[in-house]
Design brief:
The complex is a heterodimer of chains A (93) and B (287). Chain A is mainly alpha-helical. Chain A has four helices and no strands. Chain A has one domain: Orthogonal Bundle (Non-ribosomal Peptide Synthetase Peptidyl Carrier Protein, Chain A). Chain A is globular, with a radius of gyration of 13 Å. Chain B has two domains: 7-185, Rossmann fold; 195-279, Orthogonal Bundle (N-(1-d-carboxylethyl)-l-norvaline Dehydrogenase, domain 2). In chain B, helix 1 (15-26) crosses helix 2, helix 7 (193-209) crosses helix 10 and helix 9 (232-239) crosses helix 10. The longest helix of chain B is centred in the N-terminal third of the chain and has 17 residues, at 38-54. The chains are: A mainly alpha (93), B alpha/beta (287).
Chain lengths: 93, 287
């Protein structure tokens, strides 16, 4: 993704959403995931999945997850993950 | 007599070994990680780094380690077994094959200082038997770290027939420094946890083979009815179906009891390369 594309980011980026949902779906076999479903509390994934998820979003979106970002809540719904990725990408511009 | 354990040699960079390495690093130990498989070592470095950075999101008691220089100073990843020569304690996690383990312990016996203890993080082989492969049976003990080790606060410790009180104390001190509680048990193949858990996993495979239920439903019953965190088939996928099969073979061979016979479906899956999560295909498929 280039800088011009980064600037077009809005709070909910459907492309990012699709990629996050695809990653979670591939892991769980569940295709329809509610944007606001807490994926940990609902039992869709266990907390260990958070490590795989953070590794994935760092590589996929070329962002850095820092120690300050380490809150399970930040990665608990597709919507929140999208917001986190978008804000990181925007601050990278 | 060993005074202090500071540097630990971990042999085997599989799932369980990597969890143990991270756990040791989180708790201030230095580690030499050895594996003879180069691709496993390459994968290990990456996985360890990500776990050291990210695991505190799951358990707040862990302090993230994100400084690559610190990790490089405290962790030596190598394919050369000789590099454990200065280690104060050894934790072995290699494939559950008697011949491989026998060769390894004989090499470790030559390489390591005479006061160093060996802990077999073995799946099922008797600790007394392993002790007999060395010239230091009193310094051989079993530690069954649960997976992933850095999230588990209790370990099963196995006392072989010749394991000395000093070895138990050295092990206890090290594990307490890792904030672990010990459950010490006597020695018979499979000990307590694996002797029982492998029957669960094997019978769950029989249930799928008999088309009684699909894997997700078998696991769902264990999770939602029994309150287990993971079902037996998810657990088997995580451990590795080949490891589960090898462990069942050791149990079967050791007890000569048909209740440990490996389910033909499990054998077929292993023969077909469906080894579980590590190859992204087992009872489930993974991304």
């Amino acid at each position: 993704m280039n800088i011009t594309e980064n600037k077009k980011m809005t709070e909910v980026n459907p492309e990012i959403n699709n990629q996050i949902v695809a990653f979670i779906s591939a892991h769980t076999g569940v295709n329809e995931i509610d944007q606001h479903e807490n994926i940990f509390e609902s039992g869709l994934v266990n907390s260990l999945f958070a490590i795989e998820l953070m590794t994935y979003i760092e590589r996929k979106f070329n962002i850095k997850v820092t120690i300050q970002d380490l809150s399970l809540d930040t990665f608990s719904t597709v919507s929140k993950i999208n917001g986190f990725v978008t804000s990181k990408m925007t601050s990278n511009v | 007599m060993l005074k202090e354990v500071k540097t630990i040699g971990v042999i085997g960079a599989g799932n369980i070994g990597l969890g143990v390495v991270c756990d040791l690093l989180f708790h201030g130990f230095d580690v030499v990680l050895v594996d003879n498989n180069d691709s496993a070592l390459k994968k290990a470095a990456q996985e360890i780094f990500q776990t050291l950075r990210f695991a505190p999101i799951i358990d707040k008691r862990l302090n993230a380690i994100s400084d690559e220089n610190e990790i490089a100073a405290r962790l030596n990843i190598t394919s050369d077994l000789e590099e454990v020569k200065d280690c104060d304690f050894i934790i072995e996690n290699i494939t559950e094959k008697r011949e491989l383990k026998k060769t390894l312990y004989s090499q470790l016996d030559e390489i390591c200082r005479e006061e160093v203890c060996f802990a077999a993080n073995t799946s099922c082989i008797s600790i007394t038997e392993i002790g007999g492969w060395t010239n230091r049976p009193g310094q051989v003990i079993g530690i069954h770290f649960m997976n992933p080790s850095y999230l588990k606060l209790t370990v099963e410790v196995i006392k072989g027939d010749y394991t000395s009180e000093n070895t138990i104390e050295v092990t206890r001190t090290m594990l307490e420094d890792m904030n672990k509680e010990l459950v010490i048990v006597n020695d018979l193949p499979g000990f307590v946890s694996n002797r029982i858990s492998h029957l669960f996993m094997n019978e769950a495979a029989f249930v799928v083979q008999d088309q009684l239920a699909k894997p997700s439903d078998v696991d769902k019953i264990f999770k939602e009815c029994f309150g287990h965190k993971m079902g037996p088939l998810e657990t088997a996928d995580l451990i590795g179906l080949d490891t589960v099969m090898y462990s069942l073979e050791v149990l079967y061979e050791s007890f000569q009891d048909p209740k440990y016979r490996c389910c033909p479906l499990l054998k077929k899956m292993v023969a077909g390369g469906k080894l579980g999560k590590k190859v992204k295909k087992g009872f489930y498929e993974y991304n």
